[in-house]
Amino acid sequence: MTTNINTTIITIYVDGSCRNNGSDFAQGGWAAVLENGQDQLRISGSEQPTTNNRMELMALIEGLKAIRRENAHVRVFTDSKYVQKGCTEWLEGWKRNGWKRSDGKPVLNVDLWQELDALIQKHTIEFCWVKGHNGHPMNELADRMATAASHGRGVRVRTYAGNTGPVKQRLSGPGNVFTPPVAREKVSA
């Protein structure tokens, strides 16, 4: 049976983590797990100082960047109401209001929202909220990866296509729709 890659749904599970959120010493991590029914790509990274919301946004941004082709049908699972509502309810209003909230204040994390907006335009995306820490296996995986990244661990890019390959290996086969991102993460020695 041949898979029609143009109708394949790409699923992305995203999560962000931040230790000491809101402080000058905040260390954050983000993670995304992408699947297309055949292959899986796991990516994560870290940033400091940062916030939990910035890390949630980075997870989705980097996940979308890892999709090689445009016009993909993407299903995003997030436990962040900030990301889910931002993408489905608030984004269009922010753009109409010159990137201002309904109270007239500037949108927080506008740099990331603008980058995300450009990426969203390239695909058909369905956003699904999943309750965090509630036993959803892929959300739990993304959570563990983001937490590890916030501690400076496990932030190298790994791809899986039936077996573990070297860091940043391009996936092969009919499901080859992921492009490992350029390494933007900081790796602790």
From TrEMBL:
InterPro entries recorded: RNase_H, RNaseH-like_sf, RNaseH_domain, RNaseH_sf, RNaseHI
GO biological process, one term: DNA replication, removal of RNA primer
Cofactor requirement: Mg(2+)
UniProt-listed CDD domains: RNase_HI_prokaryote_like
Limits of the RNase H type-1 domain: 6-151
Record keywords, A-Z: Cytoplasm, Endonuclease, Hydrolase, Magnesium, Metal-binding, Nuclease
EC numbers for this chain: 3.1.26.4
Protein residues bound to Mg(2+) 2: 15, 143
Cofactor note: Binds 1 Mg(2+) ion per subunit. May bind a second metal ion at a regulatory site, or after substrate binding.
Gene3D superfamilies: Ribonuclease H-like superfamily/Ribonuclease H (3.30.420.10)
Keyword Cytoplasm included in the entry's annotation: yes
Residues that coordinate or bind Mg(2+) 1: 15, 56, 79
Catalytic activity: Endonucleolytic cleavage to 5'-phosphomonoester
GO terms of molecular function: magnesium ion binding; nucleic acid binding; RNA-DNA hybrid ribonuclease activity
Localization of this protein: Cytoplasm
Highest taxon in the source lineage: Bacteria
Disordered: annotated segments: 164-189
Pfam family, one: RNase_H
HAMAP family cross-referenced by the UniProt entry: RNase_H
The family this protein is said to belong to: Belongs to the RNase H family.
Subunit structure, interactors included: Monomer.
Role summary: Endonuclease that specifically degrades the RNA of RNA-DNA hybrids.
Protein name: Ribonuclease H
Gene giving rise to this polypeptide: rnhA
